[in-house]
Design a protein that fits this description.
The protein is α/β, with parallel strands linked by helices. The chain has two domains: 316 residues, Divalent-metal-dependent TIM barrel enzymes (TIM Barrel), CATH 3.20.20.150; 61 residues. Strand 9, helix 10 and strand 10 form a beta-alpha-beta unit. Helix 2 crosses helix 11, helix 10 packs across helix 11 and helix 12 packs antiparallel against helix 15.
Length: 386
Amino acid sequence: MYQPKPEHKFTFGLWTVGNIGRDPFGEPTRPIQTPVEIVHLLAEVGAWGVNFHDNDLVPIDATPTERDKIVSDFKKALADTGIVVPMATTNLFSDPAFKDGAFTSNDPKVRAYALQKTMNAIDLGVELGAETYVFWGGREGVETDVSKNLLDAQKWFREAMNYLCSYVKDQNYNLKFALEPKPNEPRGDIFLPTVGAMLGFIETLDYSEMVGVNPEVAHEHMAGLNFTHHVAQAWDAGKLFHIDLNDQAFGRYDQDFRFGSVNIKSAFSLVKFLEDVGYDGCRHFDAHAYRTSDIEDVKAFARGNMRTYLILKEKAAQFNADSEIQSLLSEISANDGSMNELTGSYSSDKAASLKSYQFDREALGKRGQPYERLDQLTVELLLGVR
């Protein structure tokens, strides 16, 4: 019942199922898989698409001849399996050149190199079919505020995005940008750390219509925030261009756990929201298998992400069809229409009438809401006893 299909648009990055199990305290526990091998693995588990950073596919020091051979082999693997490339991004955080940031580095040569690297990576992404380009500013930040003029950093970031938007338009690429916020790690503080901060920044760009957000579960949970609320804000603004699904214990380092493996109620709320509003973009799993996993367990990890999403999608449909739950929701949101003539679109007559209306404040305060019952029914539904 929970087999992935192309219409679900489930995607993984080369860096996700290709993660070799290395962490800051330990060496790799799995062998390196080539991009071709990863494409075939994703086809085996039923994924629809694969995404990549430029250097996930082509090593940063590859020669032009090596680059062409790698890309040719990758294209063949895509053709052989039917896997597509809907999104691409640039690694502007691993190389020591970016230790002080890329677009916001204090060094103008680094900022220029970051633009060059990104334009080349955009060309590669478009060549392979990408229509969304994600920017995660993993080094765009500081460890100490005295190291940067914060207004200059904002200006440099804005200039970079304007430059790259203009490049895409000049090349006539069918490409939109999605900015990915994160509060910290690997920098002490990363600029534009939340969805709301990114949405505000986007409105200052020359081509804001080209730019949206790519929110990630773990990144908002690291800061103790409600991810679904931020996704709703992005959707309401028309800026949910892409989404990264994983899981995360609140307040921890970036764990990138399998989707739904930690906060099942949060995952349910997210899936229900996406399905209810009709989100039809990629459902990208930016997660890593446990360091203890071998390759077969990595496949189980990949299948588990997709299976959990589909189970929660079914649970969302069950929630919407449950008569007791829907009765409670109707009770909670009951509207007798008495306020319709006083609220909604403003008029001076409405304002005057509302100011003179006599509310029974005590009655308003005494009215209870059956949220405990509603939440318990939700828990029972998720536990499979409804």
